[in-house]
Amino acid sequence: MKALKIDHLGIAVPSLAEAVKAYEALGFTVESREDVPTEKVRVAFLPVGESRLELLEPTDAGSTIAKFLQKRSGIHHVCVLVEDIETVLAELRARGVSLIDTEPRPGAGGSRVAFVHPRSAGGVLLELKEKG
Predict the structure, then answer these.
(1) Residue 123 — pLDDT band, cuts 50, 70, 90?
(2) Global pTM?
(3) What range does the domain containing 118 cover?
């Protein structure tokens, strides 16, 4: 797998409005906001050089982010940008890597994403992203 760069760090927050206010007080600027219905989240992206922070607020009590926030808060995932997500997923499957997604799904900003299970990434949820 050739990762092009870290695209973003996903940070689970109970309130996007409060988190944005806190990060703006730290000197960050919101680049964009959007709802991602397939993931049941509302997100805000804050640029940090070539990468970004992604603040994720759940929009449904049964969402993955809502469940995550019941146990802990903070960094939820690391996202790396890849060129051809189907090829990357096929390579990882062939190596026996445990995947949450065997096929890409819609992500924020028109991207396509898939997740690698934390048991195959040293306990970290790894998101693979192909730009849309």
Answers:
(1) confident
(2) 0.89
(3) 5-130
